[in-house]
Structure formats: C-alpha cells, structure tokens
Design brief:
The chain is an alpha/beta fold. It contains six helices and five strands, in the order ββαααβαβαβα. The two termini are about 15 Å apart.
C-alpha cells in the first residue's frame, strides 16, 4: 500500500499536498580548485549571479536530461512524487482499519509532530525516501530499523 490513507466518510483515499516552493535541503559539496575557478569566472562574466545559481542550473539541466528515466523509475517503484504528509488522524485511521503503510516517496515525506513513536511503529512498516524525511527525533529513532 503506497501513499497516505485517511478515512473520508468510510472511504479510504490518497492525499497529496503540493510542496512549498521554499522547501529545500542544504547540501555540501567539495569541488576541485580548477572547477571552482571556472565557476567563479562564469559568475564574473555575468553568466550566473552566484555559485548557487550555477550549481542549481547544472543540477536542473542534468535532471531534465534524465527526466524519462526518473519518471519510469518512479512508476516502476510505485513512488509518490513530491510531498507526502502523514497526519496523526491519518495514521490513526490506518490503524483503525488494520492497515500498515509502506512509505515510498521521491521528494519530501513528513510525519506530523503530534505523531507518537508508538503510533508510527504501529502503522508504518517501512520508509523509503529519496529526498528528505521530516519527523520528530523520537519518531525517526523509533522507525530507524524500518528506514531504508
């Protein structure tokens, strides 16, 4: 079972929330001095406003180049693409229905801050996130053996 399940008038349904444009994760990379110098030269020549602008553009270009592979893999692996939020009420509905989740997200998976470690353990079988998982430290610790 993929996605987020909630009880709506007795019917189970999948919910998807649009990601906020301001949602981002910080990454750190190491570059050789020659690569860094070339980046700084392109910035100095006005091609990019700063290093981050060039790096984001390069990443987006590579993702665009491989977009077909990404979409085929998302479909093959049954991944939720984008942001998936799991609220306490949703997990309680899953528990009441005797179901368990296999969370598979490419993007951001978030578990509400009011979800207890016990509820998470009772309702989540596995977590696979290509991107970021936002949850309390206690929930992440409880699910540590189930996060891939």
């Amino acid at each position: 079972m993929d996605g987020l399940w909630s009880l709506n008038g007795g019917n189970m349904s999948v919910h998807e929330i649009r990601p906020k444009l301001s949602e981002s994760e910080k990454i750190t990379i190491n570059l050789g001095l020659i690569d860094l110098g070339q980046i700084d030269l392109l910035i100095q020549e006005g091609f990019y406003s700063n290093r981050t602008d060039l790096i984001r553009t390069a990443i987006r270009n590579q993702l665009s180049t491989h977009a077909d592979v990404v979409m085929q893999t998302v479909a093959r692996k049954s991944l939720v693409l984008g942001l998936q939020h799991y609220a306490r009420a949703d997990l309680e509905a899953v528990q009441a229905a005797g179901q368990r989740l296999q969370i598979q997200v490419l993007g951001l998976a978030s578990i509400a801050t009011d979800v207890s470690p016990e509820l998470a353990l009772a309702t989540i079988d596995s977590v696979t996130v290509l991107g970021a998982l936002h949850a309390t430290a206690a929930v992440k610790a409880a699910l540590a053996g189930r996060i891939r």
